[in-house]
Design a protein that fits this description.
Length: 365
């Protein structure tokens, strides 16, 4: 099965991202509810969390969709405007709402809030030891926000390699991506064997961009890559190998996981192509879930069973994601696209006509 390059709306990206957002809630329920990841199933087996894998999935899908947006840009300003409107409105709103609530609860001071305001413009997280001080996982207001600056950085990386002419052919992008994977692997080997270290932010940039760039490569080769059940199981085996043998993880996991995610995204037998016809709620769910979980644990006395926390926090987070979409994110779309989204219905949402192919990238990413 090959991807139909002219039918970018016929995919399961919306439901997959919704699923990833819920997995992040489940994963965060362990440290927020118990104080550590020690009882998190994936962490116990592979020393990586379900949340880490879900965030990696977000980056690989983003790499696919954002390269499509880059190639359709009218200008550099057009590209950056879309990227800004995708990240900043939701970011600003969740931060301001969270800080206002914490001010009302006297967990932070007005002076702390005012001193932090300049940081919001550079995607800096606000943290204070006073926040949720009675919680077992105290001092962290919104642990999910760490990935947002790296998502923005990946947008800039894509722009940079575009200017460097590395996007003029799929082969150039593939070579550059391979170099990034090798650098990530070298850092991993250096840390495990030679106890070398790099700056944590640089390490996270390389780690996240490796998934983003592999996703971009899948877009470039979308007309040549075939998705077969056999290779899907091989990719799952590769993910398992990466978990069991951490030293090869930076090389294997981005490619194996990306294949598995896109195999699910372009399934024809199991189709949820219209899942996002009312909007893309995954970004809002991701933004609001962590503080909602902290508030629930705070109201419960400071700790909670992770699975109970997940069951309580997920519906509230989904409602917050819906409110974020209809109250903030949707209004940052161009007026034409807002009208198109409002008019989508099952009989036309998957159509390849008019602007439906644009909706799958510019609207939701």
């Amino acid at each position: 099965m090959r991807v139909d390059a002219n039918s970018s709306q016929s995919n399961n990206f919306d439901i997959i991202r919704f699923f990833f957002a819920c997995i992040v809630i489940l994963s965060h329920s362990f440290p927020i509810g118990t104080g550590s990841n020690d009882s998190e199933p994936f962490f116990m087996m592979f020393e990586t969390t379900m949340g880490d894998l879900a965030v990696a999935g977000f980056f690989t899908i983003s790499g696919y969709l954002i390269l499509a947006s880059w190639q359709r840009r009218k200008s550099l300003f057009d590209y950056m405007r879309k990227r800004f409107l995708r990240i900043y409105p939701g970011w600003l709103t969740v931060n301001l709402l969270t800080i206002i609530i914490l001010l009302a609860m006297s967990m932070i001071s007005l002076r702390e809030f005012l001193n932090w305001i300049p940081g919001i413009l550079i995607l800096k997280q606000f943290e204070t030891s006073k926040a949720f001080a009675t919680n077992i996982y105290s001092g962290t207001i919104n642990g999910s926000l760490w990935s947002i600056p790296y998502e923005w950085a990946c947008y800039l990386v894509l722009m940079g390699i575009g200017f460097a002419q590395l996007l003029r052919s799929p082969r150039r992008l593939a070579i550059f991506t391979g170099v990034v994977l090798l650098v990530a692997a070298a850092i991993n080997v250096g840390a495990d064997i030679y106890e070398l270290s790099v700056h944590p932010r640089l390490f996270l940039l390389i780690k996240t961009s490796s998934f983003f760039l592999v996703g971009s490569c899948f877009y470039e080769y979308r007309e040549k890559i075939e998705f077969h059940k056999t290779w899907f199981f091989v990719s799952l085996a590769g993910c398992l190998l990466a978990g069991l043998v951490p030293i090869v993880k930076p090389l294997i996991l981005p490619v194996a996981m990306t294949y598995a995610v896109f195999y699910a995204a372009f399934q024809r037998r199991i189709c949820f192509h219209h899942f996002g016809k009312y909007g893309d709620f995954s970004y809002g769910i991701y933004l609001y879930a962590f503080p909602i979980q902290q508030m629930i644990v705070y109201a419960n006395g400071g700790s909670m069973n992770p699975f109970l926390l997940f069951l309580l926090a997920t519906p509230a987070s989904i409602l917050a994601g819906i409110a974020s979409w209809y109250g903030v994110e949707r209004w940052c779309l161009p007026r034409r696209r807002r009208r198109e989204t409002a008019n989508l219905h099952p009989s036309t949402a998957g159509s390849d006509q008019d602007n439906s192919t644009h909706l799958s990238t510019d609207q939701f990413n």
